[in-house]
Amino acid sequence: MYDIVGKRKWYFLISSCLIVPGIIAMVISTLTVGTPVRLSIDFTGGTFMELAFEQPVQPAEVRAVFVAAGYSSTSVQTTNEGRQAIVRTEALEPEAKERIKATLAQQFGAVKEVYSDTLGAQVGQEVTVSALVAVAVASLAIIGYIVLAFRKVPNPVRYGACAIFSMVHDVLVVLGLFSILGLLLGWEVDALFLTAVLTVIGFSVQDTIVVFDRIRENIPRHRGEPFEDIVNHSLLQTVHRSLVTQTNAMFVMVALLFFGGATIQQFILAMLVGLLSGTYSSLFNAVPLLVVWEKGEVPALLRRLFRRGQPAAA
C-alpha cells in the first residue's frame, strides 16, 4: 500500500513554498498601495455605466478610451453581441463623462447612456465586511457541523479545525497570487474575485469533508490498527474520486480561461487556482495535519527545539 501520509513533511513544505511568496507580496502591497491586493472600484468607489452602441465593440477598445482620458482602473464587459458595454471606472465628473462619450461616439458611432451611477467607497467597505463576517460565521458552522457529525470518533474538534486550516490555505494561495499579479501586472480584484474566493471556500471544505467522512467510517472497521494506517487507507479510497471530480471542473476552467474572453479572465483564474489548491490541500494538508495532531508530533517537535535552545545542565 502506497504511503501517502508518511510523506506529509514534503506536502507541508510545498504548501509553505506556495504561501510564503504570496504573504511577502501582500506585505509589500500593503506598504506600497495600502492593501494586500489592489482593489477595484467595487471596493474603493467609482462610477458604474451601461452604454449602448449601434455596432459591436470590443471591451479592450472601449477601455482604451477611458485609459487615454486618465482612468486606468477602468474595467469593461460587453453584452448583447458586443453592442452594450458595462463600464466600471473611477468617479467621473459630469464634464469628464461627456468628453469620454464624445470620444466613444467619434470612434464607434452613436452611443447612448442607458444607466449611470456613482458608488461611494463606503459601499465597497460594507460588502467586504459582510463577506468577512459570512466567512467567519461559515467557519463556525463548519466546525459545529463536523463536531456533531463526527461526535463518535475521538477528538472531533480536530477534524473541524483541520478543515478550516485547509480553507485558509486555499484563500491565502489565491490572495497571494493576485497580490503578486497586482504588483507585477497591476491587476485589481473586484466583486467577481470575492465571489470566486467564496466559491473556492465551498469547494475546499466539501472535498475535505469527503475524505474525513471516509476516515470516520473506517475507524470502527479497522479497530486496533494505527491511526496513520487508517487515514492512509481512507486517502487511497477517496483520492481517485476527488481527482476525477475536480479534474473535470478544471478542464472547463482552463477552456474558459483561454476562450472565455478578457472580461472574466481574472475570475476564472482565481477559480482555477483555488480549485487546484483546494484539491491539493484537502488531500495533502488537512488529512496529514490531522495525523500530526493525533500523534502529538507538533508539541514534541516544539519541545525538542526548545531543549536544543537551552544551555546544557551543569
In CATH, the topology of the largest domain is named Multidrug efflux transporter AcrB transmembrane fold
Q: Please state the average pLDDT score.
A: 84
CATH class division of the largest domain? Mainly Alpha
**Main beta sheet:** 4 strands, antiparallel
Order of helices and strands: HHEHEEHEHHHHHH
> What's the CATH H-level homologous superfamily of the largest domain?
Multidrug efflux transporter AcrB transmembrane domain
Principal-axes shape call: elongated
- Rounded radius of gyration (Å): 24 Å
User: So how many helices?
Assistant: 10
Cα separation of the termini? 48 Å
Q: What CATH architecture label of the largest domain applies?
A: Up-down Bundle
Strand neighbour order, sheet with most strands:
2-3-1-4
Number of individual domains: 2
Overall strand count: 4
* Structural class by helix and strand composition: alpha+beta
Helix content: over 70%
User: Strand share of the residues?
Assistant: 5-15%
Poorly predicted tracts of residues = none
What is this structure, in a nutshell?
The model has no long low-confidence stretch (mean pLDDT 84). The chain is α+β, with helices and mostly antiparallel strands. The chain folds into 2 domains: 212 residues, Multidrug efflux transporter AcrB transmembrane domain (Multidrug efflux transporter AcrB transmembrane fold), CATH 1.20.1640; 74 residues, Alpha-Beta Plaits, CATH 3.30.70.
